[in-house]
């Protein structure tokens, strides 16, 4: 079936299968930042934002995105670069496979939470798995980023 | 200084920004989708395969079974040649030896078509009773490999008729007699489980023919040159017809050292002449790639009442699953990278068998046996201290290795054969231990603190060592090329899989040349364009490949000076990294390099260097855990994990720290949560991230990683390895902390809440 959706402010009209997931549609449309880590919504690596809400695109039917506005890392390059500067300053991206999903989650968190504590941050990002870094470097970077944004708890 | 300096990874920002960089990002949009039909049985013979109904489907390009592929036997292990692993694997075989083993390869234009085709392949199996319990495998009447041409390249104790993939034994002194003379002998048995690598990027590979009819394979591998060699040899292709490219890799930890999907895409593309790609499902990564070797470790420690350890005896039974990849070498590392910690013994023995079973094969996994051996040895040290009624810290201090000492084990135990004698030139275990105890606040917290009626806390420690590459086997090399405008290409065979090796090697090149690291453009791991490297394993890249880079950079520096001498017509030329100086005259490298290209003494400056390790200096670490146990439920929380590491110079302290933090968390996962579970018929029941518990950020309370001052004279800028050492201590340190908290000793991993709870009830 044909759906219309907006990805990073670009309008697309595309054919999708009824059981197709948004992850596959986005990659087919060229948004390769969206990665598959699993297919059970367990790892957060495929995270994108649909109409302002963080969702795992591996388990989000493409037809549900019809008429909606999708945001991937390709659509927030400037902010991703700011977040990335703090992550890479800690070496916390390591293999980088989970980074785009993490960046989307941090971006969504910054918009949703006011002055989050480390515990709030961990809770918000609990679904974003990383097998390389041990997480602590990510937290060091994210705390510094939020501090610079004026959005960190003391 | 460009080394001992934290700079961001050279490839980091591009990855964070989501630029296409991984195998599946780079595959042709029209690549055939390749999938593997996998065995539903733990052990079976394929009596017939009818693929006609599947082939008849629209959009199916090809289906391959064992009848369609070369009948060659080899090892997928991804090691140097000749491999110390048995040749016991075929691309596709008439026998399937575990649930998830490959039956047929299906390629089609859409994933839907391929899925439909897989359902239409009709396979008749003769089901064979499997051997699933590794403790019953040796000499079982059920043989996992029997009369199938299985063989080894040199003696490794491979006896398929006994279900032995490999076996090993060595003894220094007379352990039995020495134990008789000891005042106290501790004897214990420890079990470790199959752990899955669970890297976030599933195994992926894509193949295509270029316009010159050469087979190109882009693959998520830790060993591109081994991939080229093994694919070429087993498919009967000259290596000159194959190019293997390693793009960015989404984690490996040893799991991408072996060859997995590369065969399938190569065969499909050879058959169809079309590009093809395979991306493993998460279930396949769990069920059909590799695990950490499950082990049973029996250990005896004998000591005098004064606490002098006189004898150690370690015997291991290791489960390699259906294929024997890394069987011998992982077994040996369990001894060779643990036992030298206590080098003052009069006698030490190490022996073990590695058995075949009908389970997911085991392979390389960060720590490579040392984790398993360390769990037994460092738990046993605490148990011995208890028998001796001495402080476990004092017992270690009295017996542990000290700088400038050696161990006979280095000489005897190597990579599947004899080793290389060495004297330890850098060992700061004493400083690591002191600092770890201080950071843990040991003297106040040891052994336990009752929080309230329900919660109790305990602290525990463990020492560890690893290696830095495999002497006289691992080889790394580099090419440096000067461009106009004065920047360099650094081409290395070393394989960055997220570790940051591209970055630390660029730092070493920059430091040696005396230039800024921004002037070094790194390109790694492409069998056509970069020089050889054995690959990213055995903690070898910084130490071995680093030397190759330094040699190439020293030669480049000399070549630049020589070009300067020609330019100035004088022997008195200096280079400060930006300018060449001759008396009052100067020329920038930027200008000189442009002259060299276009107008004066025209030449391309290009240098190379290669290096093979002459020794394998161990990094050391002391790990300390503070745990809190909920006595009502048995739940264990690691409140704090202190790691104090001696890895020589940290070329990039940030990246070294992240390596250790990441390894700790993987190993805390192994200690407390992770385990591949099977039904009685050999089906894995937790092959998803939903059911297999990888630590999330919620489980990690505090990691305290630091490095002590240390300099390894044989290392590049004083560096040793750091990639694996972080894995080794958590099982023993946490088990020791639980014992100190509760009085309950757990000798089997993972230490589940249930096992702690049962331990409390029995105690």
| Largest sheet: number of strands, sense, barrel closure of chain B | 7 strands, mixed
Distance N to C terminus of chain B: 57 Å
How many alpha or pi helices of chain A? 5
Weakly predicted, low-confidence segments of chain B: none
What is the percent of helical residues of chain B? Answer: 25-40%
The level 1 CATH classification of the largest domain in chain A is Alpha Beta
Number of beta-strand segments of chain A = 5
Structural class estimated from helices and strands of chain A: alpha+beta
Range of strand content of chain B: 15-25%
Question: What is this structure's SSE topology?
Answer:
The complex is a heterodimer of chains A (154) and B (763).
Chain A: E1 2-7, E2 10-15, H1 22-28, E3 47-50, E4 53-56, E5 69-71, H2 77-89, H3 99-112, H4 118-124, H5 136-148
Parallel strand pairs in A: 1-5
Antiparallel strand pairs in A: 1-2, 3-4, 3-5
Helix pairs in contact in A: 2-3, 2-5
Chain B: H1 12-16, H2 23-26, E1 32-38, E2 44-50, H3 52-55, E3 60-64, E4 95-96, E5 102-108, H4 111-120, E6 122-127, E7 164-172, H5 175-180, E8 184-192, E9 204-209, E10 215-219, H6 224-235, E11 242-245, H7 262-272, E12 276-279, H8 282-288, E13 294-303, E14 309-321, H9 327-336, E15 347-356, H10 370-388, H11 392-399, H12 408-412, H13 429-440, H14 442-445, E16 448-450, E17 455-465, E18 475-482, E19 488-492, H15 501-513, E20 520-524, H16 541-568, E21 574-575, E22 579-582, E23 585-588, H17 589-598, E24 606-612, E25 620-630, E26 636-646, H18 653-672, E27 703-707, H19 730-742, H20 753-762
Parallel strand pairs in B: 1-12, 10-11, 14-15, 19-20, 26-27
Antiparallel strand pairs in B: 1-5, 2-4, 2-6, 3-5, 7-15, 8-13, 9-10, 9-12, 13-14, 16-17, 17-25, 18-19, 18-24, 21-22, 22-23, 25-26
